[in-house]
Write a structure and sequence with these properties.
This protein is globular. It is built from 12 helices and 10 strands. The strands form 2 sheets. An 8-stranded parallel β-sheet has the order 4-1-5-10-9-6-7-8, sandwiched between helices. Strands 2-3 form a two-stranded antiparallel sheet. By secondary structure, it is α/β, with parallel strands linked by helices. The structure holds N-[3-({4-[(3-aminopropyl)amino]butyl}amino)propyl]acetamide and zinc ion. The site of N-[3-({4-[(3-aminopropyl)amino]butyl}amino)propyl]acetamide (SP5) has 19 residues, from strand 2 and strand 3.
Length: about 350
């Protein structure tokens, strides 16, 4: 028995084309081929197509106004018509109503689409195109279907302890109110909330993506029912998301102590990385269910991070988290080296499924 893979063909519909980085349009790395490369590597696993779920959990994790914005902004942009005017068929904001502009005042909603584009977005590299909403929403359905599998809300007869959601685009940079970092809807946060709703008393999210999951951290910052632990390249060494992910961030209010960040130096390899995974496994150990934000961009070959983790490292991480024996939903986050991402995901899942071998 292997861990089932939940996927949707709709997740291929998001084609970012470009990401504007330091003012320069560069080629996007979060491409549809990621889905196929991962599927190919997981041929031995049962594949389950995601089933549609309503917006209930989604609109409790995200502000409904944000969800509506993401659902409609591309059609509005096309009507603009910015494609005809400037040759831009993707939504790219140029004004952001951050505190630098508002200084405590409440801004009025922008009348122009190109003004409104910055209202729920915090960077310039996360473009919204024709299929972005459909893909992001399908990724949420992948996460929710995976939750169904581990909570036996689907009566398949056999108990499934772990399921993998092949979510694309990824989600851990999305806060309750906005997107960035190649992410549009927070699949892992939705999975965690759905596990709570299915009466798993406390949920832990362990984030193995090379980047800090600032969105997931923000969503659960003041809550004690979801713990968030992350292992990532040190933002203080100059890495995205720059403003969050330091060890001093531990949560607030009822959530004080329920956030744990383990920033790592550039070049960190398997040994110290696995020490961090061990630490986060202990941090997650008291929970009743687990969500793994499974980014594989910490791998040595990945173009978006300087960490040096191997496939064996990911397998060992899977064994450490699998040995907790918790109902688990692993959600795909980043991972951009097309020739290796599938094998890295397979290694993690194999480790998770055979914790004794680790
Ligand atoms: C989900 C996830 O892994 N998001 C991470 C996005 C971080 N991107 C940082 C972009 C840094 C500039 N990359 C330039 C590469 C040229 N395309
Ligand atoms: Zn990442």
């Amino acid at each position: 028995m292997t861990i089932p893979v939940v996927w949707s063909p709709e997740t291929r519909r998001h084609e970012p084309m470009r990401e504007v980085w330091v003012g320069v349009p560069t080629e996007g790395t979060e491409v549809p081929a990621r889905v196929d490369r991962i599927l190919e590597a997981l041929r031995a696993h049962d594949a389950v197509e995601a089933t549609p779920h309503d917006d209930d959990v989604l609109t409790r994790v995200h502000d409904p106004a944000y969800v509506e914005h993401l659902r409609t902004i591309h059609a509005e942009w096309i009507a603009g018509p910015y494609d005809q005017l400037v040759g831009q068929d993707r939504v790219v904001p140029y004004v952001f109503p951050t505190p630098a502009m508002t200084q405590g005042m409440t801004p009025t909603q922008a009348a122009a689409t190109h003004g409104r584009a910055g209202a729920f977005c915090y960077d310039t590299m996360t473009l919204v195109g024709p299929g972005t909403w459909e893909a992001a929403r399908a990724a949420v359905d992948c996460a929710l279907t995976a939750v169904d599998l581990v909570t036996s809300r689907r009566s398949s007869g056999v108990e499934t302890r772990a399921a993998y959601a092949l979510c694309r685009p990824p989600g851990h940079h999305v806060t309750s109110q906005g997107y960035g970092g190649s992410c549009y809807l927070n699949n892992a946060a939705v999975a965690a909330q759905a596990l709570l709703d299915a009466s798993h008393g406390r949920v832990a999210v362990v984030d193995l993506d090379a980047h800090h999951g600032n969105g997931t951290q923000a969503i659960f910052w003041e809550r004690d029912d979801v713990r968030y632990g992350s292992l990532h390249v040190d933002p203080a060494a100059g890495w995205f998301p720059h403003y969050f992910g330091h060890a001093t961030e531990t949560g607030a209010g009822a959530g004080e102590g329920a956030t744990r960040n383990l920033p790592l130096a550039e070049g960190t390899g398997d040994g110290p990385w696995l020490e961090g995974v061990r630490d986060l496994a202990a941090f997650a150990g008291g929970a009743d269910a687990l969500v793994v934000s499974l980014g594989v961009d910490a791998a040595a070959d990945d173009p978006e991070s300087p960490l040096q983790v191997t496939a064996d490292g990911y397998a060992a991480a899977g064994a450490l988290l699998g040995s907790l024996g918790l109902p688990t939903v692993a959600v795909q986050e980043g991972g951009y080296h097309l020739d290796t991402i599938g094998g890295l995901v397979a290694a993690y899942l194999d480790g998770h499924d055979h914790p004794a071998a680790g």
